[in-house]
Amino acid sequence: MKDPNCIFCKIANGEIPSRTLYEDEKFRVIMDLGPATRGHSLILPKEHYANLYEIPEDLAADAAKLAKKLAIRMTEKLGADGFNIIQNNNEAAGQTVPHYHVHLIPRYQNDGQHILWNPGEMPAEEMDEILNTILAD
Ligand code: AMP
Ligand code: ZN
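^ thats the input. predicted complex w/ adenosine monophosphate below
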């Protein structure tokens, strides 16, 4: 299913031109227009799913396999020193385009990016309470 109001549906299905580095029947992979680093790209499913909660498990698995393949290729071709694979879900997590996508971000020593979180601290009781909440039926 495509969403007629979704820009990533249009890009993924070729209605809007993009710099495409990979395409098959399920996905188009494009260069991000606001790249965090040299080579930052996005895996876009051709079908519309807003996020990880909505995308079918098999398609998410195919996206993960493709991410691994492209990370290896891009690392070699671009001479990257490392790689971040990031996938944001909902505004609270930084998602700005509500069409599932996977960020492929080659990393370079001293590339000036800060794609990590601030480490926190938490009392042991609170850790236990969270764990029990997740484990509860
Ligand atoms: P997110 O914040 O995870 O939803 O990521 C959205 C990403 O899409 C950002 O990195 C944007 O730079 C990128 N982006 C937005 N519009 C376009 C576009 N038309 N073509 C390529 N990348 C885009
Ligand atoms: Zn879409």
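Helices lie at 7-12, 57-78, 124-135.
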